[in-house]
Amino acid sequence: MSILITGATGKLGSLIIEQLLKRVERERLIACVHRLDKAIQLRELGIEVRQADYDDPLSLERSFAGGSKLLFISSPHTDDTVRVRQHSHVIEAAKKANITHLVYTSFAFLEKANISLTHLHLATEHAIRTTGIPYTFLRNGLYSDVIAAFGIQQAIETGELITYPGKWSFHTVTREDLSLAAATVISTEGHENQTYELTASRAWNFVELAEVLAARTGKSIRHREDPVAESWLYHFLMQIDASSTTTDLERIIGKPTASLEQMVRQIMEQA
Ligand SMILES: NC(=O)c1ccc[n+]([C@@H]2O[C@H](COP(=O)([O-])OP(=O)(O)OC[C@H]3O[C@@H](n4cnc5c(N)ncnc54)[C@H](OP(=O)(O)O)[C@@H]3O)[C@@H](O)[C@H]2O)c1
């Protein structure tokens, strides 16, 4: 039984391939990639690579032919109206290819928001349901990348973490934990027709972020709220549920989700 993975050259897709290689024979994996020139590493790993463009239905049909399970990573396109069309192409091609299990990377707590991003993911989930293909919706929480956007570098330099006023807390997750969950779900049984809200088991807040930054740098860093910190990011975060948590992710990966300390360390090491 083969496993197709779209977006396989992306940050999440690459980590999922890494995890899948530990679980299934490489001969069973088919990487569906947008740009073949980015897939050299996948080929070197001995994985079959096929070209698949979300904008090109024929390429998707060719790419999915003969595949059994499909791990569909949502498009990174910035226009959600375009993404609806791209995702429909993927779903139609999956139906034509008689895919037996469609796993889709969605977004956490969709019903609690009313923005184009959440409409896109809900529309995709509904479209997948119309096919009758057994599905699993991996509703991924907010990537931990967002932590860097809260001005942590400035906080380290100035000793003050300045954030927009409000009762903020975040369920951020690492792509490593999400990839482990995705690889587990697609390579094991019992996940058909399930929806998982994949978040950290516990949300963190800005006071804790300042404490973690202080502990890592050995500097005194205090947290202060100030309307001057207003930005598009807070506006976005106000419109989604980035704070609710579940234990779905921890349960699937069989270990605690990454802590705030681990997420901050990863960001600082990658900076
Ligand atoms: N939960 C969150 O906080 C959050 C945040 C950001 C994004 N996301 C979603 O999560 C997805 C995966 O994240 P990521 O970090 O792995 O993103 P990423 O590194 O940008 O990877 C996106 C993948 O999609 C491929 N792609 C782009 N256009 C395509 C097309 N027309 N047809 C087929 N494939 C195409 C890219 O291939 P090329 O490089 O060859 O174009 C790449 O392999 C994103 O695409 C986005 O939908 C979630």
TrEMBL record:
InterPro entries: NAD(P)-bd_dom_sf, NmrA-like, NmrA-type_oxidoreductase
Pfam families in the cross-refs: NmrA
Top-level taxon in the UniProt lineage: Bacteria
Domain NmrA-like: start-end pairs: 3-232
CDD domains given in the database record: TMR_SDR_a
SUPFAM superfamilies: NAD(P)-binding Rossmann-fold domains
Protein's recorded name: NmrA-like domain-containing protein
Naturally occurring in which organism (per UniProt): Brevibacillus brevis (strain 47 / JCM 6285 / NBRC 100599)
